[in-house]
Amino acid sequence: MTIPEAAFSTQWTPQDLPREVDVAIIGGGLMGCACAYYLSKAGAKVLVLEKSTLAGQQSSRAWGFVRQQSRDEAEVPLMQASIGIWRSLERELQTDLGWRNDGCLFVAGNEAERDGYESWLTVARSFSVDTVMLSPREVANKLPGYAVPQLGGLFTASDGQAEPTLVARAFAMRARELGAHIVEHCGAKGIDVAAGQVVGVETERGYVKAKTVVCAAGVTTFRLLKLLGIALPQQLVRGTVARTTSGPTLSGISTIANGVGFRQRLDGSFNIADDAHVDVDMTLGHLRALHWYAPSLWAHRKSFRFNLNGACLTDLHQRLPWSESSRLGAGIHQRNPFTPPNDKGLGTAMRALKAAFPGQVNTQIADRWAGGIDVLPDGIPVIDAQTSPRGLAVATGFCGHGFAMGPIVGKTLADWIDSGDPGLDMHQLRLSRFAEGDVKPPSSLF
Ligand SMILES: Cc1cc2nc3c(=O)[nH]c(=O)nc-3n(C[C@H](O)[C@H](O)[C@H](O)COP(=O)(O)OP(=O)(O)OC[C@H]3O[C@@H](n4cnc5c(N)ncnc54)[C@H](O)[C@@H]3O)c2cc1C
Questions:
Q1: Minimum-distance ligand 1 atom for the alpha carbon of 370
Q2: Is the beta carbon of 160 within 6 A of some atom in ligand 1?
């Protein structure tokens, strides 16, 4: 598997860690890198700890959709603010991010889909998002040559797309220029707390004092929180994506149609994925927190492919005393989890795209990869910098749609840590909702 342009060169890594920082960030994904940038800009002394390579996990493996439409209401104000940042982000970070502000379109292939998409218009109106329902003719105008019968589509002109392999890295580069210490191949083993206050972080290269620790460790976050006695019902699913060779220009719109999600870059290549399914590779770990998911699993069952495969054996092996996980410690778990792409699903997606644009899409799959997606039972993330213990901030559980939110998550956390005010109402995304049992059913689990 190749993750194009994903990794930072390790020569960037300072060998010695600072002894003390204002904020230590665990996880060098998009959330960690964006937060590091905005905190550094505000003058904080920041350390980013990445157990592997920067943006080596979800943040470089996303489809690249940047959308407000069809989101849970709790995320919409954040996404509106995020779109505002995306529009000028290439200028702010002084680099190409593959940003295209050409909209997002979900095409309805049947009445149930159309009704589902239409129902989101109520949310759009209440937040003044520019989402509209297009007629079949209007969809045909947006997607010339689209040959599958359709009943219109949900369209948001202000949505867009960007290149996941570039964005976290760009934030990290600029944060580093502003003085942030960014360290790859150095995991955080645990967060140190004294008298209810975060006081530091234990790393693979020693101890670093910090009164604030941001835990943005993707699918490993629940493990770090468990060491603090905090139960987060986070789970893992697997999504697969392919990049194709270049084809003729179809559209710059991030589109879901005929069961395939696709976006076309300016060079003509597409990112494509099977929109209808993600894989759940069953492990003993899936029994943990099952009661949180059981009520919605049945309703969303068609979206999941449940597999009993090598992941189960790997999970059993990782529980043995001589395993990598035992050696690295519970907070790091695995350095580079193996995530194989689902080729069958990709074949289906490719056929669906070709059938949708007959004679137009003569491209081949040039590269493919998969990523472990961190989900939470209510389908919305935890973004919280005012929790217990004091000084702990958490950004995790983005349920397969956090790439679009990355810039605003980084900025919101930085503002919250720096000034005590996140600038937006973050109540619905608080960490304590699980302990309080204040968890609503998900509109979508990924
Ligand atoms: C296949 C796929 C398609 C997607 N498509 C989209 C899309 O089109 N649009 C969208 O908005 N979102 C999409 N997403 C979701 C999006 O990519 C994620 O929500 C987002 O990247 C999450 O960023 P993160 O920083 O929280 O996590 P990650 O990118 O996973 O970063 C977490 C980092 O923490 C590190 N880490 C873990 N434990 C430790 C430790 N103990 N010490 C140090 N470091 C540690 C990991 O190595 C990792 O690099 C997709 C995701 C996938 C997998």
A1: 1
A2: no
Q: What is the pLDDT of residues 243-259, one digit of tens each?
A: 999 999 999 999 999 99
pLDDT score, position 1: 39
Which DSSP state fits 196?
T
Residue 188 Cβ inside 6 Å of ligand 1? The answer reads yes
pLDDT of residue 14: 59
* Amino acid 13: pLDDT: 56
Reference 73, options 320, 378, 436, 413; nearest CA is 378
pLDDT digits (tens, 9 = 90+) for 102-113: 999 999 999 999
Judge if the beta carbon of residue 56 lies within 6 A of ligand 1. Answer: yes
Residues 140-176 as b or e (16 or more Cβ within 10 Å = b): eebbeebeeebbbbbbbebbbbbbbbbbbbbbbbbbb
Q: Tell me: the pLDDT tens digits for 351-365?
A: 999 999 998 888 999
Ligand 1 and 203: CB distance under 6 A: no
Residues 365-386 have pLDDT tens digits of 999 999 999 999 999 999 999 9
The residue to which tokens 């604030």 are assigned: 212
Q: What is the CATH superfamily name and number for domain 10-103+158-436?
A: FAD/NAD(P)-binding domain (3.50.50.60)
Atom of ligand 1 nearest to the CA of 164: 17
Candidate from 26, 57, 367 with most ligand 1 atoms within 8 A of CB, to mutate: 57
- Span(s) in the chain for CATH 3.50.50.60: 10-103+158-436
For residues 299 and 377, the answer to whether their CB atoms sit within 8 Å is: no
